[in-house]
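The freezer alarm interrupted the setup, so I double-checked each line after restarting. Inputs confirmed:
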Amino acid sequence: MSINDTYYPDLITRYLSGEAFPEEISALSEWIRSSPDHASLFDEFRKTWKGVAADQVEQQVDPAKEWELLLPKLTGLGAPGKERRAQSTGQKDSRFGIRDSRSGIPQPTIGNRQPTTSREPKVIQIESNRLPWQVIMIRASLIAAIALVLLIPIWVGYRYFTTSEVIRLSASNEILEALLPDGSMISLNAYSSLTYTEDYGKTNRDVFLNGEGYFEVNRDSLLPFMISCGNSRLEVLGTSFYAHAEQDAGDMGVVLVDGSVAVYFDEARSTGKTIIPGEKAELIQSNQRIIVSPNEDPNFLAWKTYHLIFLDDRLDMIIKTLNKVYQANISLANETLTSCRLTASFNQQSLESVLSVIQVTMDLQAETTSSGIILYGRGCN
Amino acid sequence: MGNTLDKTTFERLFRDEFKGLVLFAIQYVKDYEAAREIVQEAFIGMWDKRAQIDLSRPVKTYLSTTVRNRSLNYLRDNKKFDTRLLAQENLFPLASYEQTDRLVERELQDRIQYAISELPEKCREVFLLSRNEHLKYQAIADKLEISVKTVETQMSKALQHLRIRLKDYLGSGYPPS
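Predicted 3D structure, all chains:
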């Protein structure tokens, strides 16, 4: 321990008593991380303090008294005369779920998915089809075969392409989870699709992605797993990552969770880039650029996990994330609301529940219209 | 209609959960009055939004999420928000309220009281003003006509003593010393 023996115990005590200044909190945080001994000392102090606080709460807090203090603040319960009336409006509201009853429009269930009710993987839909280029190849092969009957290589090629069926996994409006033939797990977000041939896992592990998904690829050092989108390539041996791909533009992006991933264009593996866990890469087809940066979005997998973390985020960004994760259409009634910021975390909660927490925290009202949910409020400073 | 939160259920929930939630909030905000207020506000908010609350899901989850988020906002507004420190305290990103809702056992209560009684008089006086009266260091210093620095030293001494005396009673997780 530096400075003197009591400096950090004093600081820890001041922190736990709520007396530490912001700079001291950062310094304490830094000190704790600098050594496991510091961390365990802090832990002992924290547990002692918690024990004392629990004892104090147990002895001193009187729920009956607290209830008396709360009662006048509850709408419709404070004054006895009003109770009956308030309860009847309460009942009327209960179906519609809007506190100030801005309108009598019934509020439909928000969002298409309830996290806990649809956790189990969906039945896989497999469409098997032959792509037009294969038909062309077949014809070309047939002509070649007739013209040059004895040229075996073309015959082999013909055999190869006609027997290689294309398998397509496509998610409808829900997440689709599937096990690929090599044991790799994939989760495709709604409206995303993945295609591969029946040779997958035997002679190659090539897939085409359109949309976004989370991949847990089994390790196979002989057969690299490769996602293509236009001429963008993402190659791994075995790892977990999130990827999104827009087939129209040929752009692709990846956020690495574990292992390592190489990204490049066409066959130019040597000119590509490799990223490490916690980093993301974006491949931009139009100018053939690859941008690697730290991933700063803690919610990149929220569509799958329903774990949401907001760290002093602006309300408009939060709404954007919620719209994506819950496939909702929430909007803000006015610009002033965009300046509101929220720090919060949610774990596998329904959109209703997340929204009601946000509403209470920021004093907002929600109105449900045919096109979505609109949030009203006075704004923040 | 039986699915809407009625007054009786709400009151029972309040009486059952209030203490546990205050302790939950205190761990974040380190301030008794702020914690009490946060929990009160969470219940008021819950009552106002009762029509929207899905009673088929655990209400405790709703309450603990609200309390946690309000507490995090309090820390943020007071510029005392440090994610890594909160992570060290097992409070971030997702602390479990279930772990804290059982308060102290009788035996531990006695141990704490006994350990406090062992403190030197001045030290005990400072400690109890902080713990029982919820006074800030400055207020304790004013009341006892001593310096804030002395309050700080006495508080730290008291906690050091309790740490040593309660070591065996405060659950696992202590490294063997």
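Quick read of the result. Chain A touches chain B through 81 residues (CB under 8 Å).
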